[in-house]
Amino acid sequence: MYDLLSRTPEELTELLTAMGEKPYRAAQVFSALHQGVMSAADMTALSLALRERLEFPRPVPERTQVSADGTRKILYRLPDGETVESVLLSYEGSSPADSETTICVSSQAGCRQGCAFCASTLNGRARDLTAGEMLGQVLYCGAPVSRVVMMGVGEPLDNFENTVRFLRLLSHPKGRNMSLRRVSVSTCGLAPEIEKLADLGLPVTLSVSLHAPDDAARDELMPVNRRYGLQELLSSCRIYCDRTGRRVSFEYAPIRGVNDSPSQAEALAKLLRGSGATGGMAPHVNLIPLNPVEGKPYRAPSREDVDRFADILRKRGVSVTVRRRLGNDIDAACGQLRGKQVKKPPQR
Q: Hey, which residues are catalytic here?
């Protein structure tokens, strides 16, 4: 089988002409793929003989759970039997035109970054996802998607080349043509890769997980900090802002008794205001109260403690959004995603 979902129109043209087909067939195949066909058999504009040759591997939606708040979590089975999870978040506006659906996409089967509070890293990383496996989560989720956040299982910048290919495919004018301004890429803080992404000029929003205002605390929560400390990370963020003109947002999960004290809020505000990490733009923090993970000792702070933390940041000139908890009852909230199912034999 050919990994058609990961191929650009030019690469499909090369493949099909090598099979003796006319170049225009590549445009037909690319269009059909990005409309969400689930099998080459559904590409009815092609001959039966060609359809039989073009069967392609793809992520298969195996189970969907629906939260009391309407959030949907989809378990995808990958061609080799591995699993990942995606989340669909619907936001209703004042009119249907103002309503949006965001998909949270996974980039790896498992994760090797070892963040202490995250479920995705419990069993380490099995492998990277291909660009087509990331794209397939968008194509086969069963809903029209208006925004994409790469905040599911895995570290997108640890799978750099496939992540960039996915972004280019997602925004291709002959495919979904999604504006990359409607895409957020999350990272735990891989500083060199942040600068590589900046060099590409893709207008995505970069979301950097901080979760602590000093190196000592962050070393304990996020092992990546032992390689790229806060000053190096924030320097890379400043480079990203300067080269792309895009704001960096910072994710911070308050954890009871660990990183949620007033003094730590003061330290975070001082860190962000003093580092120039946002390239002259006002720093913005998304506060995401910890979502409990089975087997982890950490607990969420009270709403009062979260509000107090947010108020301190605002008084120090830091823009803050306190995120609503969505999907917590089905383990679909931030930090709770993983592939829980037993590995099955690969697709044939």
A: 85, 334
- 105 in Cβ contact with 133 (< 8 Å): no
Report the alpha-carbon distance of residue 314 to residue 321 in Å, rounded. 10
Q: What is the DSSP letter of 190?
A: -
Q: Which helix (H) or strand (E) holds 233?
A: helix 230-244
Note the pTM of the prediction, 2 decimals. 0.90
Positions of E strands within the chain: 60-66, 72-77, 83-91, 100-104, 108-110, 125-128, 147-150, 183-187, 205-209, 248-252, 284-287, 319-322
pLDDT, tens digit only, all 348 positions of the chain = 899 999 999 999 999 999 999 999 999 999 999 999 999 999 999 999 999 999 999 999 999 988 888 889 999 999 999 999 999 988 766 555 567 899 999 999 999 999 988 877 788 899 999 999 999 999 999 999 999 999 999 999 999 999 999 999 999 999 999 999 999 999 999 999 999 999 999 999 999 999 999 999 999 999 999 999 999 999 999 999 999 999 899 999 999 999 999 999 999 999 998 876 676 667 899 999 887 777 778 898 999 999 999 999 999 999 999 987 654 544 444 544 455 544 555 555
Place of tokens 């989720």: 141
* Domains of the chain with bracketed CATH: 4-53 (1.10.150.530), 60-330 (3.20.20.70)
Query: In whole angstroms, what is the distance from residue 242 CA to residue 280 CA?
Result: 9
d(CA 244, CA 195): 10
Gap between the Cα atoms of 253 and 111, Å rounded: 18
